Protein backbone atom coordinates (compact mmCIF):
# COMPACT_ATOMS: atom_id res chain seq x y z
CA UNK A 1 0.00 0.00 0.00
CA UNK A 2 1.25 3.46 -0.87
CA UNK A 3 0.16 6.85 0.40
CA UNK A 4 1.10 9.29 -2.35
CA UNK A 5 3.84 10.78 -0.20
CA UNK A 6 5.82 11.93 -3.26
CA UNK A 7 2.91 13.00 -5.46
CA UNK A 8 4.07 15.15 -8.39
CA UNK A 9 7.67 15.27 -7.19
CA UNK A 10 10.55 14.66 -9.60
CA UNK A 11 13.45 12.50 -8.42
CA UNK A 12 16.85 11.82 -9.97
CA UNK A 13 18.35 8.55 -8.77
CA UNK A 14 21.88 7.66 -9.83
CA UNK A 15 22.66 4.00 -10.38
CA UNK A 16 18.98 3.17 -10.76
CA UNK A 17 19.53 0.39 -13.29
CA UNK A 18 19.72 -2.27 -10.57
CA UNK A 19 19.66 -3.02 -6.85
CA UNK A 20 18.78 -0.32 -4.35
CA UNK A 21 18.52 2.38 -7.01
CA UNK A 22 16.12 0.38 -9.15
CA UNK A 23 13.95 -0.60 -6.19
CA UNK A 24 13.85 3.00 -5.01
CA UNK A 25 12.90 4.36 -8.43
CA UNK A 26 9.90 2.02 -8.55
CA UNK A 27 8.93 2.74 -4.95
CA UNK A 28 9.17 6.50 -5.56
CA UNK A 29 6.89 6.08 -8.59
CA UNK A 30 4.38 4.13 -6.53
CA UNK A 31 4.35 7.08 -4.14
CA UNK A 32 3.61 9.49 -6.99
CA UNK A 33 7.00 10.69 -8.25
CA UNK A 34 8.34 10.96 -11.78
CA UNK A 35 11.87 9.55 -11.99
CA UNK A 36 15.08 10.27 -13.85
CA UNK A 37 16.65 6.82 -14.24
CA UNK A 38 20.44 6.89 -14.51
CA UNK A 39 22.85 4.18 -15.63
CA UNK A 40 26.49 3.84 -16.68
CA UNK A 41 26.67 0.54 -18.63
CA UNK A 42 23.47 -1.45 -18.04
CA UNK A 43 20.99 0.05 -20.52
CA UNK A 44 18.78 -3.04 -20.27
CA UNK A 45 18.58 -2.67 -16.50
CA UNK A 46 17.66 1.00 -16.87
CA UNK A 47 14.89 0.05 -19.28
CA UNK A 48 13.54 -2.44 -16.73
CA UNK A 49 13.49 0.37 -14.19
CA UNK A 50 11.68 2.60 -16.67
CA UNK A 51 9.09 -0.12 -17.17
CA UNK A 52 8.58 -0.40 -13.41
CA UNK A 53 8.13 3.36 -13.05
CA UNK A 54 5.68 3.52 -15.93
CA UNK A 55 3.76 0.50 -14.60
CA UNK A 56 3.21 2.58 -11.46
CA UNK A 57 1.64 5.26 -13.63
CA UNK A 58 4.49 7.79 -13.59
CA UNK A 59 6.90 9.20 -16.16
CA UNK A 60 10.53 8.10 -16.50
CA UNK A 61 13.50 9.56 -18.32
CA UNK A 62 16.46 7.24 -18.88
CA UNK A 63 19.87 8.95 -18.90
CA UNK A 64 23.41 7.62 -19.30
CA UNK A 65 26.34 9.34 -17.61
CA UNK A 66 29.66 8.64 -15.95
CA UNK A 67 29.27 10.44 -12.62
CA UNK A 68 33.06 10.72 -12.34
CA UNK A 69 32.89 13.37 -15.07
CA UNK A 70 31.33 16.67 -14.03
CA UNK A 71 30.49 17.52 -17.64
CA UNK A 72 28.51 14.32 -18.04
CA UNK A 73 26.74 15.01 -14.76
CA UNK A 74 25.89 18.46 -16.08
CA UNK A 75 24.42 16.99 -19.26
CA UNK A 76 22.34 14.55 -17.21
CA UNK A 77 20.88 17.36 -15.13
CA UNK A 78 20.26 19.45 -18.25
CA UNK A 79 18.32 16.58 -19.81
CA UNK A 80 16.30 16.04 -16.63
CA UNK A 81 15.38 19.71 -16.37
CA UNK A 82 14.50 19.90 -20.05
CA UNK A 83 12.12 16.96 -19.61
CA UNK A 84 10.53 17.76 -16.26
CA UNK A 85 11.27 21.44 -15.63
CA UNK A 86 12.39 20.84 -12.06
CA UNK A 87 14.03 18.38 -9.69
CA UNK A 88 12.75 17.97 -6.13
CA UNK A 89 14.71 14.94 -4.94
CA UNK A 90 18.26 13.71 -5.52
CA UNK A 91 19.30 10.23 -4.47
CA UNK A 92 23.00 9.53 -4.93
CA UNK A 93 23.38 5.79 -5.21
CA UNK A 94 25.79 4.98 -8.07
CA UNK A 95 28.98 3.48 -6.72
CA UNK A 96 31.71 0.88 -6.96
CA UNK A 97 32.53 -1.77 -4.36
CA UNK A 98 35.74 -2.40 -2.47
CA UNK A 99 38.66 -3.75 -4.47
CA UNK A 100 39.68 -6.25 -1.80
CA UNK A 101 43.28 -5.05 -2.07
CA UNK A 102 45.51 -4.18 0.92
CA UNK A 103 46.73 -0.58 0.97
CA UNK A 104 50.36 -1.64 0.36
CA UNK A 105 49.32 -3.28 -2.92
CA UNK A 106 46.60 -0.84 -3.99
CA UNK A 107 47.14 0.73 -7.41
CA UNK A 108 46.50 4.44 -7.64
CA UNK A 109 44.04 4.00 -10.50
CA UNK A 110 41.98 1.55 -8.42
CA UNK A 111 41.89 4.01 -5.51
CA UNK A 112 40.96 6.81 -7.90
CA UNK A 113 38.10 4.81 -9.40
CA UNK A 114 36.43 4.40 -6.01
CA UNK A 115 37.03 7.97 -4.84
CA UNK A 116 35.95 9.57 -8.12
CA UNK A 117 32.81 7.45 -8.38
CA UNK A 118 31.74 7.30 -4.75
CA UNK A 119 32.84 10.78 -3.63
CA UNK A 120 33.32 13.06 -6.64
CA UNK A 121 30.18 11.64 -8.23
CA UNK A 122 28.11 12.49 -5.17
CA UNK A 123 29.75 15.92 -4.94
CA UNK A 124 29.08 16.77 -8.60
CA UNK A 125 25.44 15.72 -8.32
CA UNK A 126 24.88 17.47 -4.98
CA UNK A 127 26.45 20.68 -6.21
CA UNK A 128 24.29 20.90 -9.32
CA UNK A 129 21.13 19.87 -7.47
CA UNK A 130 21.69 22.49 -4.78
CA UNK A 131 22.32 25.17 -7.39
CA UNK A 132 18.99 24.33 -9.02
CA UNK A 133 17.09 24.22 -5.73
CA UNK A 134 18.50 27.55 -4.59
CA UNK A 135 17.53 29.09 -7.91
CA UNK A 136 14.01 27.73 -7.35
CA UNK A 137 13.81 29.34 -3.91
CA UNK A 138 14.90 26.41 -1.74
CA UNK A 139 13.31 23.23 -0.53
CA UNK A 140 14.15 19.72 -1.68
CA UNK A 141 15.59 16.45 -0.45
CA UNK A 142 18.98 14.81 -0.87
CA UNK A 143 19.43 11.16 0.09
CA UNK A 144 22.98 9.85 -0.11
CA UNK A 145 23.50 6.09 -0.02
CA UNK A 146 26.44 5.40 2.25
CA UNK A 147 27.20 2.11 4.03
CA UNK A 148 27.90 0.58 7.42
CA UNK A 149 31.48 0.72 6.16
CA UNK A 150 31.48 4.47 6.78
CA UNK A 151 32.14 3.36 10.38
CA UNK A 152 33.09 -0.30 10.18
CA UNK A 153 36.24 -0.93 8.10
CA UNK A 154 37.10 -4.08 6.20
CA UNK A 155 40.67 -5.16 5.56
CA UNK A 156 41.19 -4.76 1.83
CA UNK A 157 38.43 -2.18 1.61
CA UNK A 158 40.25 1.10 2.15
CA UNK A 159 39.08 2.53 -1.19
CA UNK A 160 35.42 1.81 -0.44
CA UNK A 161 35.56 2.48 3.32
CA UNK A 162 37.21 5.87 2.89
CA UNK A 163 34.75 6.87 0.20
CA UNK A 164 31.77 5.99 2.38
CA UNK A 165 33.21 7.89 5.34
CA UNK A 166 33.58 10.90 3.08
CA UNK A 167 29.94 10.62 2.01
CA UNK A 168 28.83 10.72 5.61
CA UNK A 169 30.73 13.95 6.23
CA UNK A 170 29.60 15.50 2.94
CA UNK A 171 26.02 14.78 4.02
CA UNK A 172 26.48 16.40 7.41
CA UNK A 173 28.26 19.44 6.03
CA UNK A 174 25.59 20.00 3.41
CA UNK A 175 22.89 19.64 6.06
CA UNK A 176 24.39 22.58 7.95
CA UNK A 177 24.82 24.70 4.85
CA UNK A 178 21.35 24.04 3.48
CA UNK A 179 19.16 24.11 6.59
CA UNK A 180 18.41 27.84 6.11
CA UNK A 181 17.10 26.96 2.65
CA UNK A 182 15.00 24.04 3.91
CA UNK A 183 16.88 21.47 1.87
CA UNK A 184 17.13 18.23 3.83
CA UNK A 185 20.26 16.12 3.43
CA UNK A 186 20.49 12.65 4.93
CA UNK A 187 22.28 9.37 4.28
CA UNK A 188 21.29 5.73 4.25
CA UNK A 189 23.87 3.27 5.58
CA UNK A 190 22.81 -0.23 4.56
CA UNK A 191 24.46 -3.39 5.72
CA UNK A 192 24.27 -6.49 3.54
CA UNK A 193 21.70 -6.11 0.76
CA UNK A 194 20.92 -8.64 -1.95
CA UNK A 195 22.09 -6.56 -4.91
CA UNK A 196 24.74 -7.21 -7.60
CA UNK A 197 27.35 -6.12 -5.01
CA UNK A 198 26.53 -9.41 -3.27
CA UNK A 199 25.98 -11.56 -6.35
CA UNK A 200 27.86 -14.61 -4.96
CA UNK A 201 25.42 -14.74 -2.04
CA UNK A 202 22.46 -14.41 -4.42
CA UNK A 203 23.77 -17.24 -6.58
CA UNK A 204 24.83 -19.66 -3.83
CA UNK A 205 22.65 -20.33 -0.74
CA UNK A 206 25.68 -21.71 1.12
CA UNK A 207 27.58 -18.44 0.67
CA UNK A 208 24.54 -16.47 1.81
CA UNK A 209 24.10 -18.65 4.89
CA UNK A 210 27.73 -18.17 5.88
CA UNK A 211 27.70 -14.41 5.36
CA UNK A 212 24.57 -13.70 7.39
CA UNK A 213 25.83 -15.40 10.55
CA UNK A 214 27.20 -12.13 11.98
CA UNK A 215 23.84 -10.40 11.40
CA UNK A 216 21.50 -10.78 14.40
CA UNK A 217 18.49 -10.88 12.09
CA UNK A 218 20.19 -13.78 10.27
CA UNK A 219 19.35 -12.53 6.81
CA UNK A 220 20.35 -9.88 4.30
CA UNK A 221 18.09 -6.99 3.35
CA UNK A 222 16.07 -6.84 0.19
CA UNK A 223 16.54 -3.68 -1.94
CA UNK A 224 12.86 -2.83 -1.47
CA UNK A 225 13.40 -2.48 2.28
CA UNK A 226 16.07 0.17 1.74
CA UNK A 227 13.78 1.83 -0.81
CA UNK A 228 10.99 2.26 1.72
CA UNK A 229 13.32 4.09 4.08
CA UNK A 230 14.44 6.27 1.16
CA UNK A 231 10.78 7.17 0.55
CA UNK A 232 10.49 8.41 4.12
CA UNK A 233 13.61 10.56 3.81
CA UNK A 234 12.43 12.00 0.49
CA UNK A 235 8.97 12.85 1.80
CA UNK A 236 7.45 15.60 3.92
CA UNK A 237 7.39 13.10 6.81
CA UNK A 238 11.14 13.79 7.17
CA UNK A 239 10.97 17.60 6.98
CA UNK A 240 12.64 17.92 10.41
CA UNK A 241 15.29 15.28 9.70
CA UNK A 242 18.62 16.49 8.37
CA UNK A 243 22.27 15.52 8.76
CA UNK A 244 21.28 12.04 9.90
CA UNK A 245 22.69 8.67 8.89
CA UNK A 246 20.16 5.87 9.01
CA UNK A 247 21.77 2.47 9.57
CA UNK A 248 19.68 -0.41 8.21
CA UNK A 249 21.63 -3.59 8.81
CA UNK A 250 19.60 -6.12 10.79
CA UNK A 251 21.68 -5.33 13.89
CA UNK A 252 25.09 -6.01 12.31
CA UNK A 253 26.82 -2.91 13.66
CA UNK A 254 25.77 -3.48 17.27
CA UNK A 255 26.77 -7.13 17.10
CA UNK A 256 30.39 -6.67 16.03
CA UNK A 257 31.78 -6.38 19.55
CA UNK A 258 30.21 -9.59 20.84
CA UNK A 259 32.68 -12.18 22.03
CA UNK A 260 35.56 -9.72 22.24
Shape: globular
What is the correct CATH architecture? 3-Layer(aba) Sandwich
Oligomer: single chain
Structural class: alpha/beta
| End-to-end gap | 43 Å
Q: Helix share of residues?
A: 40-55%
Mean pLDDT equals 95
Strand fraction equals: 5-15%
Helical run tally: 9
CATH homologous superfamily (4th level) name: NAD(P)-binding Rossmann-like Domain
CATH topology: Rossmann fold
Physical arrangement of strands within the biggest beta sheet = 3-2-1-4-5-6-7
Element string (H = helix, E = strand): EHEHEHEHEHEHHHEH
- The rounded Rg comes to 18 Å
How many strand segments? Answer: 7
Number of domains: 1
Low-confidence stretches: none
The biggest sheet amounts to: 7 strands, parallel
Keywords for this structure?
single chain, 260 residues, alpha/beta, seven-stranded parallel beta sheet, 7 strands, 45% helix, globular
Amino acid sequence: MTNGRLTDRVALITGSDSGIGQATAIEFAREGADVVVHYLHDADGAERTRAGVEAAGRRALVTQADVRDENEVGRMFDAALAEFGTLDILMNNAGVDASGTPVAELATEVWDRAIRTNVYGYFFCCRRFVQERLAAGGGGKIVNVSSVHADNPNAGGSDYDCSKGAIRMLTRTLALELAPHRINVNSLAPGMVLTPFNQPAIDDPAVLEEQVQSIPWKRAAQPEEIARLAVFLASADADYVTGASYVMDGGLMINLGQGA
